[in-house]
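Report of the visiting student (M.T.), summer placement. My assignment was to run the structure pipeline on a short list of targets and document each run. The first record concerns Glucose-methanol-choline oxidoreductase N-terminal domain-containing protein.
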Amino acid sequence: MDGSCAIGSHWTSASSCPTTAGVSDVGALLFTSLLTTLIDSQKQLGNPDEYPEDASSYLLDEYDFIVVGAGSAGSVVASRLSEVPEWKVLLLEAGGDPPLSSDIPKLFFALQRTDIDWKYMTEPKKGMCEGLQNGQCSWPRGKVLGGTSTINAMLYVRGMQKDYDKWAENGNYGWSYKEILDYFKKSEDAKWMKSDDLSHHAKGGPLTIEQFEVSDIGERILEAAMELGYPVLDDINAENRLGFTAVQGTLRNGTRCNTAKAFLSPAKDRKNLHVSKHSHVTRILIDPGSNEAHSVEFRTQTGEVRVVKFKKEVVVSAGAINTPQILMLSGIGPLEHLNDIGIKPVIKDLKVGENLQDHILFPGSILTKKKSSLHQISPSFYNDAFYEYLTRRTGVLSTHYGTSATGFIKTKCSEDDRPDIQMHFLAFLAQDNQSIMVLANGVGFTEETTLSILEYLKEKDLMFLIPSLLRP
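After the run finished, the structure tokens were exported:
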């Protein structure tokens, strides 16, 4: 028989005969190789080996510096201080290592209101946060190495030039745009840059910046902006901010580049840097006679209260909410409020925690588009997406919800030539209920709100137009 091997033929051996078993063995080998590749790729996501080990079991009694909070600021400060070998540095973080899911860009909403989020909520107020559970807005703050840079949307958007210049004009010397630009550039590794113009960017720094993939929906947003007379910008972080463009992000090879990965990973083997995880700082201890801070009190994962001294300084970088809270618990803050909660002030009456402002978002503008064959979601859509992501770190999981476009516009309410509104866009394909449920859980939509959105999504693609107030 043509193509067959006669049993006992001296011309062939069992290994050379192309039998079904041989083909099966090759197939099994290829399948095993594929599985191994996928497993190895998955292991690289949220890899604990990227981060410093937990030093909570062998802390010293005293350090030169103690840094509170391993977030967007604390990770940088601890890394920089530990560059001096003679200085012993302790970094205290209330959370632990970032989980696997935090590395996948599209899953950022799934991280909010979880154990790596402090789960802060605004107080209910009539007319505010409607359509959300209990009339409260979620205020995500990261409780994890990297802080909020581990759970946010990864947008790399600097403040506008005049924002910093205003700070300097108000007496904050050294904070003008020209003065701080060098520090932006020092920290940055602009992988997305194709030109040699590095006047606003730099390469080789610890924080990797890439450009999100822009889908066809994102391209259409940019085309629509041009029709309205807005320019499409090459660089959202250059001098001109008025217009629309693709978003830059804190990304590294299609994964999140949080500040712990960027700044603590290179420092993780330094003998003079200790990182104590699951260590919730409760207050700074201050000598009431001299008004000088000398120690930090914190609670461990087991509930034990510990105190560690410092020789030089404590740096409180626990975020916009936790930093003033820690200061007030330490007796530093508004006298009347501290008296009300039974804390004896050790410093003069200070307006700690006042003038807190946020960029209000309004996710209530929804556009629908008749479902097209181009955007149909198949039953295997996410299986295919995960396969593409694990093998190439590309596709829908490596980017945002379908657009990755943003824009800055100037309304008649702007007091100068700076844009005062930023536009965000979230897009969902028809019948992509899974993504809507992740969004609903992350934001905190009521059941009624969620069901109404799902009803739209049965037959139509859907887009949220989300304006953000830049200078409240």
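Residues 181 and 326 are 30 Å apart (CA to CA). The chain is about 25% helix and 20% strand. I thank the supervising group for their guidance throughout the placement.
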